[in-house]
Specification:
This protein is α+β, with helices and mostly antiparallel strands. It has one domain (13-371): Aminohydrolase, N-terminal nucleophile (Ntn) domain (Glutamine Phosphoribosylpyrophosphate, subunit 1, domain 1), CATH 3.60.20. It contains eleven helices and 18 strands. It has a seven-stranded antiparallel β-sheet with strand order 8-3-10-1-16-15-17. It has a five-stranded antiparallel β-sheet with strand order 11-12-13-14-18, covered by helices on one side. A hairpin with a 2-residue loop joins strand 15 and strand 16. Helix 6 (214-222) crosses helix 7. The radius of gyration is 20 Å and the shape is globular. The chain starts with 12 loop residues before the first strand and ends in a 15-residue tail after the last strand.
């Protein structure tokens, strides 16, 4: 199929499930949820993000890496051993699936930064890891770090999502937060690195839509040492949230108001405090507004946010059931995996973030509100 000649205006599927009480559940539910929306993708990309899956390695960054060949793996491992303390290393456990063809070599490494390297660099360990990931992806041909968080992992492939889930044996993992994506690419090729989710540190993003502001967003974010090596809008969305929340200490609500702000006439109707706050955000981060139709799910180690573009040009449904929050492109994907009767189901308004945080978690999303 020549995917460049095919356009489905509402193509791609996204889904997410979080248990606020950290009840662990296998990848089976999220696989079944995304499989309901099979027709929204075309086999050129499917993937998952899972949180809480690496007990015993919670303090390590889990690097999942694609390699084209042994040479790329050797160069990458030389770089890792020079800069990081490398713990457990192994080829990713996989299952043969007929529809998943010509996979790259896929390895995972559990690492920490070397103290001496951190002192020399004069930066936090998170920032050091960001720079290491950017270095590998930009300079080592045939190597691509596609997951770099703690106690979480991204698993993606050129395949339908349900086949990618079987390929990575996700039924054998247990986590408290899962997201999924089924891809129907329109502007970029279907290849392993281009599948969703996109990840940096604990952040992961799945996305349905098309960001026409990509060039403006990319130029702004690259001024702050992010390397957009994949030429895709979802990659830059991931870096935008890292920049706004981790680097600039914005709350998740303020970050949402940057990427999907109210219209100017809506801002004018707010009370004075909120009106001035929104104007400052637009003035400071105007180049990070995401223009175009989208629905996204942003996940981190302690929570999940779903968000539409401000005029809701992509579908998004949310539901609650006990300690669980579900979000998906279609209601059927939620009802397929709901354990009991849903207590609430709704379609969020454009630009209205749906946020679910773990009970008792250190609130990296919201703790900055008073300071900002």
């Amino acid at each position: 199929m020549n995917e460049g000649k095919v356009r489905i205006s509402s193509g791609c599927a996204i889904a997410g499930i979080i248990d606020r009480k950290r009840e662990m559940f296998s990848g089976t539910d999220i696989i079944e949820s995304i499989a309901v929306m099979h027709e929204r993708s075309n086999g050129l990309g499917g993937g998952f993000a899972a949180y809480g899956i690496y007990p015993g390695y919670e303090d390590c960054y889990a690097l999942h890496i694609f390699f084209d060949d042994k040479g790329a793996r050797q160069k990458t491992e030389d770089f890792l051993n020079c800069n990081l303390k490398v713990g457990m290393t192994e080829a990713m456990p996989l299952r043969k699936v007929k529809t998943v063809k010509k996979p790259p070599q896929i390895w995972r490494y559990f690492v920490r930064a070397k103290e001496q390297k951190l002192m020399e660099a004069g930066m936090s360990e998170d920032e050091f890891m960001v720079q290491a990931v950017m270095k590998i992806n930009k300079t080592i041909k045939g190597a691509y770090v596609f997951s770099s968080g703690k106690n979480m992992g991204v698993f993606k492939a050129v395949a339908y999502p349900e086949d990618a889930g079987e390929f990575y044996r996700l039924d054998e993992y247990k986590g408290y937060l899962w997201t999924a994506h089924g891809r129907f690419p329109t502007n970029t090729p279907g290849w392993w690195g281009g599948a969703h989710p996109f990840n940096l540190l604990d952040w992961s993003v799945v996305h349905n839509g098309e960001i026409s502001s990509y060039d403006a967003n990319r130029r702004f974010i690259e001024m702050y040492e992010y390397e957009c090596t994949l030429q895709t809008d979802t990659e830059v969305i991931t870096y935008i949230f890292d920049f706004l929340i981790r680097k600039n200490n914005l709350s998740i609500e303020k970050a949402a108001a940057v990427v999907a702000p109210p219209l100017w006439e809506q801002i004018a109707e707010k009370d004075q405090k909120n009106r001035e706050k929104l104007r400052r955000l637009r003035g400071t981060y105007g180049s990070l507004l995401l223009n175009g139709p989208f629905s996204i799910i942003l996940s981190a180690s302690n929570g999940m946010m779903a968000l539409n573009d401000r005029i809701k040009l992509r579908s998004l449904v949310a539901a609650e059931e006990g300690s669980r929050l579900y979000v998906a492109s279609e209601e059927a994907a939620i009802r397929r995996v709901a354990r009991e009767k849903l207590e609430r189901i709704w379609a969020p308004r454009g630009g209205e973030p749906v946020i679910a945080l773990l009970e008792g978690a250190d609130d990296i999303f919201l703790k900055q509100d008073e300071a900002n």
